[in-house]
Each structure stands twice: as structure tokens, then as C-alpha cells.
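The protein record quoted in full:

***
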Amino acid sequence: MIANRREIVKFHNGRPAKLVLAALEAAVDSARPDALVKQAVRLDGKLSVRDIYGNTAKFQKFDSVYVVGAGKAAGGMADALYSILKNRISAGAITVPHGTRIKNRVIKVTEASHPVPDKSGVEGTKKIVDVLGKAGQGDLVFVLISGGGSALMPMPAPGVSLHDKQRITNLLLGSGASIHEVNVVRKHLSSVKGGQLLRHINKSCTVVSLILSDVIDDDVAAIASGPTCPDNSTFKDAQKILNKYHVKSPSAVDRHISKGARGKINDTPKPGDPVFSKVHNMIIGNNVVACKSAVNYLKQHGLHAVHLGSEFDGEAQDFGRFLARLSSDLAGAPFAIVAGGETTVKLNKSRNGRGGRNQEAALACAIELGQDITVAFMGTDGIDGNSDAAGALVSKATSFSKKMDLQKYLDRHDSYHALKKMHSLIFTGYTGTNVNDIAIAASVKSR
């Protein structure tokens, strides 16, 4: 999976880098959407779906099955579901990032832009709504949800244009707003997010959402902006977020949010709404699953490995410094720390370079890394920020680079070019999944 493994291992102390990279691959492999769907969905006389917490939903009778979805993992999920249900699927439509391919020909695919929505995404969402319109009483609808679904399933609310949504998404992503805050605003500019997709489905249908979580705490309302989940956020919350980050919104966005805050537009459906009476939201994979797979791999190779948790957020630079200091304090015995989550980067108003939150964390870590420690930061989707890298690995081998004045690269958010000179970038291309980010710090003797 890691295309430039040989270069990284050669430059970064051999065995330590090799172990850390292999642990990252084990983590991503455990989050493969096809394998997760096949673990969750069983058809043995009757259909059953089991989530990662052990909850099971069973369905004895259904007339037809319809499949829709959007996200970075939607392609793999769709193929796996088709391999189980085959000709029981009457129709389907999913939207995926450009370059994604699926094997079956029953579920139609639209390729669209991420993270900023485009016209293809709007067309793909219309196809999804068309498929949902075919489902009737006694039918079963599968909704495949994964990270990236917010951008890939855009259907602007009346009076809001796609350009308006593109503009506000770009502004929020560059403001330092968390992904949760970005999604609150997205929900209230949409006709499908925040549980509103269910408004396009016959209320007599049974709906099963298979969800691959890419958010901290696995909040189903936040994953892909929760198209089939109750939404506790309001138009007033969206208004506060725009004010908090001093975002100068397009006038149509301001009008729509303001109108909703005054109660002139129906808000997203809340908990207890009858629209959710026949809906099953099932999480089938998350960051914890991936982190534990990395821990198990490292333990099998003789390291004392621990999972620090999957809730790390805040500024990417702060996270990188934290992991550098923590791992340096623990240096000596063979050990490894695995941590997951999703940090943010607050860009400069001008003169920003190339990189992403994982590369930014890696560069900040490299500046403070003192002991014989190897640390890697990677996005499980394979794409970090505005670059073609998945993340980066740093070690004591990067010590020579301190002559490069790494802080200057960090200050202008140009981690990509600094890490490229250090032979530290990790390249995977799209992995076909997305369960947030993973960081691994390891102390291993080179040999």
C-alpha cells in the first residue's frame, strides 16, 4: 500500500521505519470497507446486520432492496453488499471521489469532487434521490455512509447555489473550524444532510445505514453530516459558528441561515421525529478498530504497544510536539504508542504552502524529536490536505534537516516541501477507506 516504502526505510534507520510503516498498513487494512461490510452483513435465510458494538438488527421479509450512498469508502462498501445480496438489489446509486472504481454494474456510480463539492456531486445526489423515490412499502433501503460524504452528497437548500456552498466550505476549512463545526453549517445549507435524506424516502420503508466512522467519538450525526440521523444542531448554532470564525459568508448563505434562525425555515429533523421510526444506523468500522490492529501488529513484533485513544484533536502542530515529548520521555525500552483522531490547521490569510494536518504534525514533531524515536502521522484515506501525500514519517535521521530552518516551513504551512527534502513523505494514493488519522511513535533498535 505504501508506494515509497523502500525510500523511507532506507533513509530512516531501517527496521524502526519498516515496523512503523507495516503497522500503518495493518491499521488501514483492518478498515477495508469490503471486509467490514462482509463482517457486518449476513444473509442466511434471513438478513442480519451487526455493528462493532455487538448490536444486531434482523430482517425476515423485504420485497426489493435499494442501495444508495456517498463517501470515500462507498465503492468498496457497494461491491461487498452486492456480493452478498446480488440480484435482490433492484437499483442503486452512489457518489465517490474521482478515480474510484467499482466492480458491479447494478449500483450506478457518480464521481465527484472532495472536499469542495462540485456539479457532479449535485448530479450524483439527484440520482440518489431518484433511486430512493422508487422504494415503497415492504422495501429495504441500504444507505452507505463514510467520510467524505458531506462534500460528495451536496444538494443545496432552495435559494443557495453550489457556488455559495463551495465558497463557504473553503472559508470554513481555512478558518480553523473543526470538522464538526463545518458540518453543522453544511447541514443547514442542505436538502439531504442532518437527517433530511429521509424526507426523500417513503416512510413505510426500512432503512439500514452502514456507517464507516471518520469522526471522533463516532457521533453518527457528524459522519458525512448525518444524512439519516437526528440532528441536535440548529440554524442558530450555524450562525454562531460563522460569527465565531469571522467568516464573511456569501449573501445567499447569510440570508438562508438568518431566516432559519428566525424560525422561517423548517430545521433539520430532531430526535423523536417519526421519520426515524424505521431507521437503523449501524457503525461497522472506526478509528479504534484501526488503531487496535496497529497495536496488535507491533505487539506481535516484540514491542510494548499501547493505544492512547482515538480522540486527539486541536492544532496539528500541538499534537506533533506532544507526541515528540511523550515518546522522548519514554525512550529506552522497546515500545510503541498508537493514537488516533483528527486535528486542524489554521491557515495564514495569505502565503500558505502545501501540506496537510498529518504533515504539519510530523514537521512539528521533527523539530522537537531528540531521542532514537521514529514517529509517523497518516490519514487513513491516503490524502492529506492539499497534497498527494498521506502523511509523513520522521526520525533521528532527519536531524540534519534542522539546518533547513524547519520552523519557517511550519510558519507558512509548507510542511510538504520540507518533508520531501527529508525523504519523509508517505505516499499511498486513495486507500478506499477513511477512519480518521493514525499516529505511531516507536522506540526500536536498528538492526
